[in-house]
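In the laboratory, one determines a bound structure by crystallizing the protein with its ligand and collecting diffraction data. In a computational setting the workflow is compressed into a single prediction: the sequence and the ligand go in, and a structural description comes out. We illustrate the idea with zinc ion.
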Amino acid sequence: MEPKFITVHDTANTNRGADAEAHAAYLKGDSAANAPVSWHFTVDNKKIVQHLPTTESGYHAGDGNGPGNRSSIGVEICENVDGDRAKAEANAAKLIARLKSETGSQVVQHNHWTGKNCPRVIRSRPNGWKDFLKKVESFMGETLTPIMGTPVATIDQAREWLKKKAPDWGLMADLCYSIAPKYGVRADVALAQAVKETGAFRFQGIVKAWQNNFCGLGATGVAATGQELLRGADPNLVSFEQGIHGAIFFDRATGVEAHLQHLYAYATDRPLPLGVVLLDPRFALVKRGAAPYAEHLGAKENPAGTGWAWPGVDYGHSIVRDYLADLVNTKIPEPISDAEKAMQRLLDEEVIFSKHDLKSNVTWEEHCFTLCRLLDRLAKC
Ligand SMILES: [Zn+2]
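The predicted complex, in structure-token form:
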């Protein structure tokens, strides 16, 4: 199984002693096998017990071979009266935060799959589920990806990454890395998002390459009328045209900067840096500072329920997992030494016939043959 969800349950067992260990014992017995029932983790106030690897399907969601059982990690939270329920929920939130950051999974209630009233304790409290998700997020702080700050990937990595992803668009790395510091936005996060939004600058969606719009700004799915408000953005550099999806920017640098401004709007509530020209026609519409982390750019996973993408399920996680991780891990090829270049030239010119360890010794025999080949070559000149 490749987990896509984490399903939260309550054990619905308030018996004294019905803790994580007791449920582990139950899962090993015949009644669990006969039910059948299985899940991945049980959490009480003292312990987290794992019953299944997260790569193996359990049978806990009540949807047979549906996505609940086949693609979700099951977490049961204990209700035993002799336990401490608040502590058990906090432990579960911590576990779920870790699972979420490891797998990029979405957290759902058992109720999501079958309508069952589970997790019943959490569901019975006003705002119970919302508060629980907030608790999960609070434990994710250190594993989230801040949008503001110094990029983790270097510009050389960015250039190298684009060579693979979009060979004709290498200069986007230079544009991104030269403009981003003005805003304090991480150039690597912005570039990862641009590559996602544009399909590696192939522009096969509704926004086209000539628009210099690298993040789908203003592309709502409805073509523009040409009467769209610019909301303070410079009309010499930004426009909308009838029948065209999304904003049009004067040149690539303008488009990159507008993208950075839009990210800045989400990542911080600070005013725009002094002296910059507003290029983002939607800057004023953003709930400022609502998404300081890339993972929160999708409204669905944003604790404030808002975000860049709507509903944006997995949107921010995908930027980090499918693009940024690759960028950050891009290897810069070792520079080729002069000696390696020299050997390659001799190979190309057929003065020697195979590659050798540059530090190995040459016998007089080899040396003589090589020199003779050179003499022959000279004689022909
Ligand atoms: Zn359940």
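Residues 9, 110, 118 surround zinc ion (CB under 6 Å). Keep in mind that any predicted model is a hypothesis to be tested, not a measurement.
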